[in-house]
Amino acid sequence: MQDTLDQHWSAHYKNKVDFRMISSQSLSDILEFVDDSLAKTCLDIGCGTGQLTRELNHRGYKCVGIDVSQTAVQLARSLTVRTGELNYRQFNIETDNLDNLPSQPYSLITCKLVYVFMKNRARFLELVDKMLVQGGVFAVITPVYRQDTDATPISVNFDLTFRELKSKFKTVTIFEETGDMVTFVCRKG
Q: What's the Cα-to-Cα distance from 147 to each of 18, 124, 131, 142, 150, rounded to whole Å?
């Protein structure tokens, strides 16, 4: 299965397809929720070519960017000039051993355009919770739909996603982005 996922996503990156970037202002909004007293450690789940991972690193975070696509990880590495506190690796959050990830626990975990692809979201949220420090922040950046007629293959139901996140985290704050994009900022209680 790992090879199939790698092949699927690597084909996109080999065809020069990249995915929607997060604005600097949106990232600043997310970072407002991170407690300054926590160590600046971050896990970027589904890092793709590393845009968000690099931006977090430039803002002082010790970052680990993971992606199922080896091609994406190679591109992220090639686009990264400074690598001291930045680590990219091919990793499947749903199947690989979490003990193989460095810098745990994390004060910030980001998940941009990936939540929709999680096969078992309850299990995924358990893994995120396990890797977050007390008071840590989990940011889910994803396209949403509110009615079934608005659904696209890469969007999640807004109400269902809010309930899933609210069942696991102390607080969930919502930022409406442009178009169908929403950021859910969750704090571990």
A: 27, 24, 33, 16, 5
Burial class (CB in 10 A: 0-12, 13-18, 19+), 20: middle
How do the domains of the chain map onto residue ranges? 2-187
**CATH architecture for the domain at 2-187:** 3-Layer(aba) Sandwich (3.40)
* Model confidence, pTM: 0.89
> How do the pLDDT tens digits run along the chain, 189 residues long?
556 766 655 565 555 555 566 788 889 999 999 999 999 999 999 999 999 999 999 999 999 999 999 999 999 999 888 767 899 999 999 999 999 999 889 999 999 999 999 999 999 999 999 999 999 999 999 989 988 787 787 889 999 999 999 999 999 999 976 678 899 999 998
Phi, psi for residue 19 in degrees, rounded to 5: -120, 165
CA distances from 139 to 5, 45, 129, 188 (A): 23, 10, 12, 11
Q: Which residue has the tokens 């692809």?
A: 117
